[in-house]
Each structure stands twice: as C-alpha cells, then as structure tokens.
Amino acid sequence: MKVLVVDDDIVHRKFLETLFSYSWEVSVAQDGMSAVELFEQHLKDNDPFQLICLDVMLNQLDGYKTLQAIRKVESSYSENGAQRTKVIMMSALEEDTQNDICVCSDYDAYMCKPIMIEALELQLKKLGL
Fold first, then answer.
1. Helices (H) and strands (E) in the chain — how many of each?
2. What local confidence, expressed as pLDDT, does residue 97 receive?
3. Contact 85, 27 (CB under 8 A)
4. What is the pLDDT of residues 57-103, one digit of tens each?
5. CA 116, CA 81: separation in Å to the nearest integer?
6. Is pTM, for the whole model, over 0.85?
7. HSE (CB half, 13 Å, CA atoms) of 29?
8. Confidence band of 118 (pLDDT split at 50, 70, 90)
9. Distance from first CA to last CA of the chain, Å, rounded?
C-alpha cells in the first residue's frame, strides 16, 4: 500500500515516514503544491496512493485547499477507475477550531498532534487500511 505524508515540519514528516515505512511504500511532500503534483503524477502512472496524511497548517497552500485540489484532480481521473483516496487531516489544533479556514471537509479522519502510534493504528483500522 502507498501513503503520501504531507507536512512542513520535518520532525513530524520523518516520524510518519519512518512509522509507515515498515509496511507501506511512503512518499513525502513538505508543501501543498508539491503534494498535489505528486498525487497527480501517481494517478497518471496508475500507481495511486491509498492514504494521505495531510497537515492542516502548511505554507502557501493550507491543508484544506490542498485537499480541495487533490479531490479535483482525483475526480478528473475517476472515469479511468481511480478510487477515492482516504485522507487523515492532522493538526496541533482541535478540529472544531478549524471552521474559519476549512474549505474542503472531504476527509476521512482528523487527528491532533502529536500523533500517538496507538491512535493512528486505530484510525487506520477504522478506515480499513
């Protein structure tokens, strides 16, 4: 299975990359634009991600706008059989404090940082991953 980790914090990005690398193929992006480009390239190559772990607070393009762009790209490939990618939004802030910046709520789970391994495993199980 393939996961895309998107986080501008190198410590958190490396933590998730290491954690997932035991059983997943991991790609990383440090900003939203790079994430959208990487996501689209994998769809073009017919090698889609099954999961995206997406930080809310990113430089240039925040996590919600990144997700909105990813869903737009994904919908353009849905005619070719592209499956909807599961998305876990991640932030140091509680989910209900994000209402003023949330432009896309089409995600599957929301987790507060710091991410605890047991909580992540539980979310993955709930998502069937």
1. 4, 5
2. 47
3. no
4. 998 889 999 999 999 999 988 776 568 899 999 988 755 545 444 44
5. 34
6. yes
7. 24
8. very high
9. 9
- What's the CATH class of domain 2-126? alpha beta
**3-class state of residue 111 by DSSP:** strand
Q: What is the DSSP string of 55-67?
A: ESS-SSS-HHHHH
Q: What is the pLDDT of residue 103?
A: 47
Burial profile 73-88: b = 16 or more Cβ within 10 angstroms, e = fewer: ebeebeeeeeeebbbb
Going from N- to C-terminal start, the domains of the chain cover 2-126
Dihedral (CA of 40, 87, 98, 15) sign: negative
Instruction: Return the structure tokens found at 94.
Output: 């509680």
Residue with tokens 């992006």: 29
